[in-house]
Amino acid sequence: MLDSDAVHVEGFSMAGGHWKACLAREATAAYCEDDDEDFDAEFPSAEAAARAAATWASAAARTPDLPGLGEVFAEEDVDFAEELFFRLLDRLGV
């Protein structure tokens, strides 16, 4: 977690391969603005992140909430990014 402002998450499954995403996208972008890499290529949209996370959770025999995952990845207005992380775990069925 980045100073309770943003969270990077990653996962891997044989079915879905490696995926990476962020929570609190605007705050994450602010942390990454000096990086040489393309932020949008590094961190997919909320919809793409939700699909990748749902594939990962399904491969682990969990029952993900795809619409709920999309909401968590799209959320920006939180005091602490940790709140989003725990909501993400819940929507993944973990």
Question: In words, what does this structure look like?
Answer:
The protein has 94 residues and is an alpha+beta fold. Helices cover 50% and strands 15% of the residues. The protein is built from 5 helices and 2 strands; from the N terminus they run ββααααα. The protein has a two-stranded antiparallel sheet. Strand 1 (7-13) and strand 2 (17-23) form a beta hairpin. It starts with 6 loop residues before the first strand and ends with a helix. The model has no long low-confidence stretch (mean pLDDT 91).
Strand order of the largest sheet: 1-2
**N-to-C CA distance:** 19 Å
Mean pLDDT: 91
Q: Largest sheet, described in full?
A: 2 strands, antiparallel
Secondary structure: helix percent: 40-55%
- Secondary structure tally, helices: 5
In short:
50% of the residues lie in helices and 15% in strands. The chain has 94 residues and is of the alpha+beta class. A two-stranded antiparallel ribbon has the order 1-2.
List key phrases describing it.
15% strand; alpha+beta; 5 helices; 94 residues
Q: What is this structure's SSE topology?
A:
Layout (H helix, E strand, L loop, with lengths): L6 E7 L3 E7 L1 H8 L6 H4 L3 H14 L6 H9 L6 H12 L2
Antiparallel strand pairs: 1-2
Helix pairs in contact: 3-4, 4-5
